[in-house]
Design brief:
two-stranded antiparallel ribbon; MJ0586; 7 helices; four-stranded antiparallel sheet
Length: about 170
């Protein structure tokens, strides 16, 4: 028997659900918290996301809205977000140095504090969406990692097709 990864309840046949960008094996009651993931049996490795229409009768308050949206696929908000590049600090520093500016001069042009520029270039802080957009526009750089084909066709994990956190995480030592 498997445990639900949300509530810990023992489940004979868990449902695969995408919740806030993570795919989890959950019980029927926790299925309502995300979008059910069904994999196609074709040769492609893509997954198809559809709303859960086979959940138990415990979703009384959301049953009215789920019937109208069950004909079209739901998308998770994290599917649309760009990830910040891991080397964002180097990109900012190199672009600033190419323009021949000091941290203080760049901060003055962007109407930001010099200490913020310093922290961004050292990688001590992540830029807010507004600061990221401003830096990208003014320095003519991209701070987004962008998805690659390697991300979508990643083939790590065990031979059974199940992945653990250790298969995905890269340590920064």
């Amino acid at each position: 028997m498997v445990q639900c990864e949300m509530c810990g309840k023992d489940v004979a046949s868990p449902n695969r659900v995408k919740i806030e960008g993570a795919e989890l094996d959950v019980c029927d009651e926790c299925t309502d918290f995300g979008t059910e993931v069904t994999t196609e049996d074709s040769s492609s490795t893509s997954t198809k996301y559809s709303t859960s229409s086979s959940s138990s009768g415990s979703s009384g308050s959301s049953s009215g809205s789920s019937s109208s949206s069950s004909s079209r696929p739901r998308h998770d908000m994290f599917d649309e977000m760009d990830e910040l590049a891991q080397d964002y600090d180097q990109r900012i520093r190199e672009a600033r140095e190419e323009r021949g500016l000091t941290q203080e001069e760049l901060a003055g042009e962007l109407n930001l504090k010099a200490s913020l520029i310093r922290k961004l270039e050292h990688g001590d802080t992540l830029p807010s969406d507004d600061v990221q957009t401003t830096l990208e526009r003014e320095l003519d750089i991209s701070l987004s990692a962008g998805s690659t084909d390697a991300d979508e066709e990643w083939s790590g994990g065990s031979s059974s097709g199940e992945y653990t956190l250790g298969d995905v995480v890269k340590r920064k030592d």
